[in-house]
Write a structure and sequence with these properties.
The protein contains seven helices and 15 strands. It has about 325 residues and is of the alpha+beta class. It has three domains: about 70 residues, Structural Genomics Hypothetical 15.5 Kd Protein In mrcA-pckA Intergenic Region, Chain A (Roll); about 100 residues, Pseudouridine synthase; about 150 residues, Pseudouridine synthase, CATH 3.30.2350.10.
């Protein structure tokens, strides 16, 4: 029998969700059967899969120990790299990811999904950062670990949001779903893009190739995407436009694939355009950076973030040297 005492980070979630997190390889069918046959109890009483757990509840599970075996804990003390922190408080952390770094191991079909790549990821580095600061103790948690609220591609740089506790994670994820987290990107594209345009198309992910397909018409399996782009400067000599981009929808590779489909591929784009000439010129990564994030939190645990915007240091964005008239600080302010 295993017994779990619900703490702050376990509370306010369904019993079945909690069990799926604390067990390893437990089939859902067996989990629900155990609940039905009273092999799972909360505070000594019969439980139901949809019960919402509260702090201090005791969950008892009569299932084989093999489903609750302890995995070897990573030795975070050996991680010496310090993430580039944009902003941090007791609930969240904003980090500027470098180009070339994975945020976490990938989706099905992604070559980076192998578990051995985990130690190279941003989430591993951030977890080590919190462990070594004494803000997170994996051994004291039943089901929670610091979690990323958004992700950006390996070869895209910029701001990634991390939640340090479960309540902050729930609030941030809800705000993202409701478009109350406002992210802006800068990118360099081939061609003369003029004005502010709201681009509409349809998006379908190919899990086998880990790419996406963009079409102008709705087709089976597609979902609409909306990308808002504004030109900031044009480099006539190189025929490149600096764009500010905001996502109304947030799909996999949306900016890269949508702009390539529209006829304005990103400088250095290798997945949705032929970048042989860009590579010869030294651009091996797509010229795309998540530069700022603003929050609309009128209430809740994170209400102190309401109306605040945080930005990166524009001097670190290499492709901005192609647009010498653009004043990053004037547009986005100094980093806090």
């Amino acid at each position: 029998m295993r017994s779990f005492t619900i703490n702050d980070n376990d509370a306010s979630q369904r019993l079945d969700k909690f069990l799926s997190k604390v067990s390893k390889g437990l089939p859902k069918s067996l989990m629900y059967k155990a609940i039905r046959t009273k092999k799972v109890k909360v505070n000594g009483k019969r439980a139901h899969e949809g019960d919402i757990l509260e702090k201090g509840d005791v969950v008892e599970v009569w299932l084989p120990d093999e489903f609750f075996s302890e995995d070897a804990k990573p030795d975070y003390s050996k991680v010496k790299s310090v993430p580039d922190i944009v902003y941090e408080d007791e609930n969240i952390l904003l980090c500027e990811k470098k180009q070339g770094q994975l945020v976490h191991t990938g989706d099905e079909g992604d070559m980076n999904r192998a578990p051995e790549n985990e130690k190279e990821t941003l989430i591993h580095a951030l977890t080590a950062y919190l462990v070594n600061k004494g803000e997170y103790d994996p051994g004291s948690e039943n089901s929670f670990a610091p979690a990323l609220c958004n992700r950006i591609d390996r070869n895209t740089g910029g701001i990634v949001i991390l939640a340090k506790n479960a309540e902050a994670l729930r609030e941030m994820n809800e705000a993202i779903r409701e478009n109350r987290v406002h992210k802006k990107y800068l990118c360099a594209v081939h061609g003369r893009f003029e004005g502010k345009q709201e681009l509409h198309a349809f998006h379908r992910k190919n899990y086998r190739t880990n790419t996406v397909e963009i079409s102008d018409r709705k087709e089976p399996g597609t979902r609409e995407i909306v990308t808002v782009c504004r030109d900031l400067e044009y480099n006539r000599e190189k025929d490149l436009t600096l764009l500010e981009v905001e996502l109304v929808t947030g799909r996999t590779h949306q900016i890269r694939a949508h702009l390539a489909h529209t006829g304005y591929p990103l400088l250095g784009e290798g997945k949705y355009a032929n970048n042989a000439e860009d590579r010869k010129a030294g651009y091996s990564c797509q010229a795309l950076w998540s530069v700022s994030v603003g929050f609309d939190f009128p209430e809740g645990k994170l209400s102190y973030l309401d109306g605040r915007t945080f930005s990166v240091d524009g001097e670190k964005i290499g492709f901005l040297s192609l647009f010498p008239r653009f004043d990053f600080r004037r547009r986005y302010g100094d980093p806090e």
